[in-house]
Amino acid sequence: MLAPYAADPDFLRFEAERKQTTETWMIDQERGVARLEVSAVRPSVIEVPLRPMLGCVATAPDRKAAVPTSTPDRFGGNMDYPGMVAGVQLMLPVYEPEALLFLGDGHARQGSGEVVGNALEVSMDVTFRVELIQHKKIGWPRLETADYIMVLGSARPLLQALQHATTELLRWLMADYGFDERGASLLMGHALEYEIANVVDPHFTVAAEIRKTYLGATR
């Protein structure tokens, strides 16, 4: 069933009368799909392609804060962004000596928003490389792919998460890509894209994105 923040409250009150169940998906690595077969569900067979991703990547929070791993924030955390896949470059702020990087929450696939409160939860072997960028300060997690630069902002309400992501992306364009505030704002006004990463965690997460084709030569 849909999570409480993913649908109209009146609909969810009606749906709450139905029995909550747990379904088990079968992972077919050879075919690269996840398959659900349940006679009580219509349709009785649902199949989706695998897209392995990490729900949680983070450094230690600042000010020695004790933050549950379920909560995303400036340090990363349980952002549940479906684009956190193999080949991406994630940049996180460092607040503590040695960063204290942690990762987990492996998903075989997840839709945007994580609207049922979970994904295709699996164990996962992860190969990654860490590089320390000195003398550079960022405010929110930044992510780079072959085609996009993006920022992940997390907060409640959802609007505040969007504001964090948008502001940090504007700062990135100004700091690294030769834009002034007016130029960055004009580009974002006509080329900015958003994705909703999660609406189920203690903080919601929004990704603000710009295609690299609008940036000229990459760094």
Helix/strand-derived class?
Answer: alpha+beta
CATH class of the largest domain: Alpha Beta
Shape: globular
Helices and strands, in N-to-C order?
Answer: HEEEEEEEEEHHEE
Low-confidence stretches: none
Query: Termini, distance in Å?
Result: 44 Å
Tell me the helix content.
10-25%
Number of DSSP E strands? 11
CATH fold name of the largest domain: Endonuclease I-creI
Instruction: Estimate what percentage of residues fall within beta strands.
Output: 25-35%
Per CATH, the superfamily of the largest domain is Acetamidase/Formamidase-like domains
Describe the main β-sheet briefly: 5 strands, antiparallel
CATH architecture of the largest domain: Roll
Which strand order do you get reading across the main beta sheet?
A: 6-8-9-11-10
How many domains make up the coordinates?
2
Radius of gyration: 19 Å
Alpha plus pi helix count: 3
The mean pLDDT is 93
What does this structure look like?
With 219 residues, the chain is an alpha+beta fold. The chain folds into two domains: 4-49, no CATH class; 53-214, Endonuclease I-creI. Helix content is 17%, strand content 25%. The protein has helices at residues 9-15, 158-176, 181-191, and strands at residues 26-28, 33-37, 45-49, 53-58, 76-77, 89-91, 102-107, 142-144, 148-155, 193-198, 204-211. A hairpin with a 5-residue loop joins strand 10 and strand 11 (204-211). Helix 2 (158-176) crosses helix 3.
How would you summarize the topology of this molecule?
Layout: H1 9-15, E1 26-28, E2 33-37, E3 45-49, E4 53-58, E5 76-77, E6 89-91, E7 102-107, E8 142-144, E9 148-155, H2 158-176, H3 181-191, E10 193-198, E11 204-211
Antiparallel strand pairs: 1-2, 2-3, 4-5, 4-7, 6-8, 8-9, 9-11, 10-11
Helix pairs in contact: 2-3
